[in-house]
Amino acid sequence: MKKEQKPTVTAIIFYVFAVLFLAYTAFMIFTAYEYVSGYIEQGTISYGSDFKDILSLYVQQAGPYLVYALLLYGMGYLVDVAAKVKESKESDHAGKETTVSAAAVKETKIAVKKEQKTEAKKQTEKKEKQTKDTAKDTKKENKGKAAKAKESKKKETASAEPTVKESADKAETK
Asked: How far is CA 140 from CA 128, 130, 152, in A?
């Protein structure tokens, strides 16, 4: 439910002047009535034959003040409506800011989560790469050790052969 808003001070001032002019209109109608009644009692005019003149007198006496009262009331109403529209726009604007802020916070949270996931993926990929590199290095080291082992065996074999030859040569010389 919407909270009923009170009229603005300006609108209240217009309403008060409208009521005052309306009261003055009623006073002028009463004054015109007394004036016409006085002439009718004297027999100078009658309602039937001089109706047009009597109506003209009422309109001349009370009409402007009635129009002023209606205009002041209308102006007060317009000021009040304009103030309510302005207030509702401000509250809507504040509501939109709140909505926008909430949406911005939500989008920021989503962006942060995506960034965290991306960072976690990068770290996982980095660890996998390091593991692969370590495995490659281990294989290279093992190949290198195997190659060194083969070379050392060849050298041992090669160094052992001359010894065998020398032993055979020594044995022949004896």
From this structure: 18, 15, 18
Q: Determine the Cα–Cα distance for residues 133 and 140; give it in Å rounded to an integer.
A: 10
DSSP 8-state symbol, 7? P
Amino acid at 122: K
Cα gap 84→38, rounded to integer Å: 50
CB 25 within 8 A of CB 62: yes
Nearby residues of 35 by Cβ (< 8 Å), 6 or more positions away: 57
- Are 47 and 54 spatial neighbours (Cβ–Cβ below 8 Å)? yes
Which of 92, 88, 81 lies closest to 8 in space, CA to CA? 81
The first and second tokens of residue 56, run together, are 């003209």
**Which one, of 2, 170, 12, 167, lies nearest residue 77 by Cα?**
12
- Angle, alpha carbons 57-62-64 (nearest 5°): 110
Q: Which amino acid is at 140?
A: K
Q: Which residue has the higher pLDDT, 79 or 137?
A: 79
pTM of the model: 0.49
| Gap between the Cα atoms of 132 and 147, Å rounded | 22
The angle at the Cα of 26, spanning 32 to 59, to the nearest 5 degrees, equals 50
Q: Please give the helix or strand (H or E) that residue 1 lies within, else none.
A: none
Higher pLDDT, 105 or 37: 37
